[in-house]
Protein: Gallinacin-5
Amino acid sequence: MRILPLLCALLLLMLQGAAGLSLARGSPQDCERRRGFCSHGSCPPGIGRIGICSEQDFCCRRRWYP
Structure:
């Protein structure tokens, strides 16, 4: 019975790790659907990052709409 809490903790850690791996990379089309644009390297000042277009490009969008 001493091993049961250890197994529960191990199972919890495995499930948390698997949740992080399930995030899929976006595409430029996904970024445009979210009313954003792809920017190489980083987003310009005053613009927030809302996703990833590719390994080197971020999906960016203005933080506040009028």
Notes: The longest strand covers residues 47-52. The CA atoms of residues 26 and 53 lie 5 Å apart. The radius of gyration is 19 Å.
